[in-house]
Amino acid sequence: MGQFTINLLFVGGSFALYIGIAIWARAGSTSDFYAAGRGVHPVTNGMTTAADWMSAASFISMAGLIAFTGYDNSSFLMGWTGGYVLLALLLAPYLRKFGKYTVSEFIGDRYYSQTARVVAVVCLIVASVTYVIGQMTGVGVAFGRFLEVDNTTGLLIGAAVVFAYAVFGGMKGVTYTQVAQYVVLITAYTIPAIFISLQLTGNPIPGLGLFGNDVATGEPLLAKLDSVISQLGFNEYTTHHADTFNMVLFTLSLMIGTAGLPHVIMRFFTVPKVSDARWSAGWTLVFIALLYITAPAVGAMARLNITEMMWPNGTAGEAVAVETIENDAKYDWMKTWEKTGLLAWEDKNGDGKIQYYNDKSEAMQAKAEENGWQGNELTKFNRDILVLANPEIANLPSWVIGLVAAGGLAAALSTAAGLLLAISSAVSHDLIKGAINPAISEKNELLSARIAMAVAIVVATYLGLNPPGFAAQTVALAFGLAAASIFPALMMGIFTKVNSRGAVAGMIAGISVTLIYIFLHKGWFFIPGTNSFSDAAPLLGTIKSTSFGAVGALVNFAVAYFVSKSSDPIPSDIEELVESVRVPKGAGSAQAH
What we know:
The protein is an all-alpha fold and 593 residues long. The protein has 24 helices and four strands. It has helices spanning 3-24, 30-35, 42-53, 56-69, 75-98, 103-110, 114-146, 151-201, 206-209, 221-231, 244-258, 262-265, 274-292, 295-310, 322-327, 332-338, 362-371, 386-393, 398-436, 442-464, 471-495, 500-522, 549-565, 572-582, and strands at 318-321, 343-344, 353-355, 380-381. The strands form two sheets. The protein has a two-stranded antiparallel sheet. Strands 2-4 form a two-stranded antiparallel sheet. α5 (75-98) packs antiparallel against α13 and α7 (114-146) packs parallel to α22 (500-522). The model is unreliable at 525-534 and 586-593 (pLDDT under 50).
């Protein structure tokens, strides 16, 4: 049985399972569509939240970014997991106690303002659409390789699958679908990691193998990796090279962005009691940790495998002979990925070999001149392919490759479904029912939610064809936008007496300065032919666009505070409502629902 057939069996079987579950758990009411009837067990909710959270950025992209940068990209791990601590302690139980369906509804009621609600809807849509672009990027990468189709076709297939189980299933269908998706993605992530850890270190636990010894040489694995890549002119893997201030801001942006993401917060509206919301956050951390503890090992071991494959004889910079790539099955993965356009090499000096080294390193430039090299001949290696290609690089069994294909798609599609649900809920429940037509019937509200989701799928698919970077980088921008707009409004709504004018001004200021900084830093201007997806020089010190969300949040807090202080205090009934939400008075919501 060929690899393509095996891929089809794994991917097709998993899709059939998701759609079947969605049909079985089809939403029949707005309560089912928005909050799964508020009957989800905390353990189940923890698993679904983990699947919702561990997107293409976590499964496909994060290990690749860590692999090619090393210690400096550990910010992804610290920010994305640390954010859940904030979420569990500061937001989840209080929002569940408030007893509403959506984040925008909480903001509208807490700040007693339809304007605040609409502004929250706009902020939510901007952050969620940016996030879902990253998921569609991952879908295109996965389909492009494993179903041997082009990126456009892959996106269209993925969009059709999401449409089938998210539009009709709503939160109830998505919840139980994501239980299956979590099982698929965590199995697909850990099994190859166990295989590779055993190959390199003899330890079946990747997280421990990372700090073990290399089987071939007996030296510590990380020390060997540092030695190998530094001889090729690259930075040592375990050393800090980036700007510390920007790294701290980036980690903070990811943390508070996590606590402000609407599609994650919505999960805590689905449990029966306030205490269940806190337990759900705890279980989510457990399920997430299974992947996040493994990811650093996956990145380091994959980097070592790739480098050693390109440097088989120990002569720094001299890599595989062209004839070897053509005739040795060990390099078939390179020829396969070359067809996707995500991997490329070129014999620039015609010597029959591919030189792989950092041609920007002064030390390697001297060696290049001495040997007649014309630059690094591995001309393209898209970091989003690393996890998906890892089983092929390590020559693992065909069924493992098929399993990874299903896992990567499960990760991307599960988060895409959650994001699209957040967008549709914001449009139908908060915008149409909350602001435009409060008298709309439940049947028509449900219809409008499904139409909004269908439109969001079309928009996300279109934007996914031309993403602003790797999947994890695109997602980081979304976290910055959520950090600058939603998180401060939620925090101030629970723990302060900021009024509606302050909240509206803060959200507008926070998301505006962040969007402007991102557009200027990325070089996105509305002039045809001038768009660039490469970061320009930082505009404010060393702060990059992916780190600016923390600054935007500070702007939001400051503007909200000063505007609130210069205007009328909040009404007494809202003050009582805030107290009832914040002060523990047993399980249940602050309002009847």
